[in-house]
Design goal:
By secondary structure, this protein is α+β, with helices and mostly antiparallel strands. The chain has one domain: OB fold (Dihydrolipoamide Acetyltransferase, E2P). It is 20% helix and 34% strand. Strands 2-3-4-6-5 form a 5-stranded mixed beta barrel. The longest helix has 16 residues. The chain starts with 6 loop residues before the first helix and ends with a strand.
Length: 127
């Protein structure tokens, strides 16, 4: 005996599968993110000595990504952009094709005056 589903049930099942398939998937790299308060990149860039050594949480769109290993990338949040250094891949790497994806990044601000302010990433979630 075969079971026939009502057409409305079939439609609901179909659209449920479409919605599930279209949901954005997150992938995390490095250590789990523990910070909860986001800092704008503009704040960090404007006051790099104030933020030097502090762990911050930023969110923005990934721009350029290291095409050798995925060991650094740029993040822009609409206020400014900043480089996230993954120390030649010793900490973790991200996919080389991650440009244009949304990222949440936790890292320690580094600024010694000899090069632009940047983050040493400890954890990244890409959506």
């Amino acid at each position: 005996m075969s079971v026939r589903l009502c057409p409305i049930v079939n439609i609901v099942l179909f659209f449920s599968l479409v919605v599930i398939g279209c949901q954005q998937k997150e992938k995390s790299y490095g250590q789990p993110i523990t910070a909860t308060e986001k800092t704008s990149i503009q704040e960090i860039v404007k006051s790099p000595t104030q933020y030097h050594g502090r762990v911050v949480l930023i969110e923005g769109k990934i721009g350029a990504v290291c095409q050798d290993m995925g060991c650094w990338f740029q993040v822009a949040d609409g206020t400014n952009q900043i480089k996230v250094d993954l120390q030649m891949g010793r900490l973790y790497v991200i996919p080389k094709n991650a440009s244009e994806k949304l990222a949440v990044v936790e890292g320690r601000v580094q600024y010694d005056g000899s090069r632009p302010v940047h983050l040493v990433g400890t954890g990244t979630t890409i959506r």
